[in-house]
Amino acid sequence: MEELIAKATQGVDPDAPGAFFHIFFNLMNMIPWTALFWWNLVFVAVGALLGWWRGRLLAGIVWAAALGPIGWIIVLLAPKSAKPPPLPR
Description:
This protein is mainly alpha-helical. It folds into two domains: about 1-30, no CATH class; about 30-89. The chain is about 65% helix and about 0% strand. The protein starts with a helix and ends in a 12-residue tail after the last helix. This is DUF2628 domain-containing protein.
């Protein structure tokens, strides 16, 4: 934990008026945003596939985007839609 605090406060004067934002941006720069973006796309794609299979495409996309793999479980536990999805031609 001390290593994380040292990285976050590197180059920051704690008495400066903008110290909070400087520390916050240092913490945000440590997050692997590219990996999180691609994982989120995978979660949404699987959620869309499961939603299409269950007849609830939009629900699958929304739940997967909001909750990731937990959204998949919600889509799978929800009742199937009355009309089946169209077959590919």
